[in-house]
Amino acid sequence: MRLAIAVTVATLLSLALPTYASQTELRDKTPEPAKTQMPSSGHAKPLTDGVRALQGVAIYRRDCQACHGKTGAGNGTNMIELATPVPNFTVAESIVNFPPDKMISSLMDGHKIGVTPTDMAALSDQEIRDVVRYIQDAFMLPAYTSDASAGRQIYARTCSVCHGDRGNSVSWAQNSLDPSPFDFTSYKAKKLSRRHMINTVTYGSDGTAMVGWATQLSKEDIAAVVDYVQATFIFPDQILSSDRPKHGAADADTEHGINMVLPFDDGLTGNLEKGEKVFQLSCAPCHGKNGDGDGPRAYFIFPKPENFTSKRARAELNRPHLFSSISDGIVGTVMPSWSKVLSDQQMADVAEYVFTSFIVEKGVEQALPPNTKSDDMHSAQKKTSR
Question: What is the pLDDT confidence band of residue 266, given thresholds at 50, 70 and 90?
């Protein structure tokens, strides 16, 4: 019996092996199909661009920030030691006054203001180009575009799948994402400044499905799609131009970069210790004790409380903005108006605590007002990090 089974198995194997061998041979001889190269969208950034951008950031922070300031506004800690004013790269005319070729030439010639030839000798030509490109990209916003076709194409390709073809968030994502995509046709959208929208597209929005597009879209592409959304969905009855009316209270000082060193209005000065007490008692339940928007009540709140440590928040929430939000509240959110509960001084105290403890990155002091002691800032940040 065993012999019969063995013979049968051997016979089956002898029949199967040639078939397997023939299939293997055929597979080896069959030429592989030619690999199809996916067409480039023309908007994705090559890896080399990302490496060069990181190099530019590092050089700026090491060699330029002390004079030109963290935001490029010419308000660095060393500026008071210079006889010649430091240029402000965030104002509109800087795009005209400081074209890339002029900046590169100036740096290669020694950059007379505050920099010795020895300092510049340490930078290669490529490094100079990297830091100039960073300054151009980080601080000089593109002008409004009169041609909406570029923005329309980008919106259709990358945004409409969630925000809908008409910008009203009517899409598959409306009931699939929590929270739902933003509705650009709503009244709330009219409160958005151009700078806020550019920051959101660039960095993303915490607590939502909106991701940052900085690695996929150029600065000009992001500005183009924002201008298209504003002109088509938010303000369809207004002409898109460089001299159009500003939209939203924050626009007046944010079109070409937010001044993060602005003090409070009416000469108010915040007290960090008093502000911390108010924050921990009244604000931390929603915003979290570390200001990251993850307080014990945050789970039940929509939209989510502000994360003061996010890149977007650190790019636009200066002292006046924080004070205004605390005083007036924010429409469309659970953030109430505190002007009937707290005095102006108390609101300045908590705004100062939020700004100094969460908005200002640790080790950066140029955003402090003249009458705020750096020891107070470090003390507040130390308490926050516990």
Answer: confident
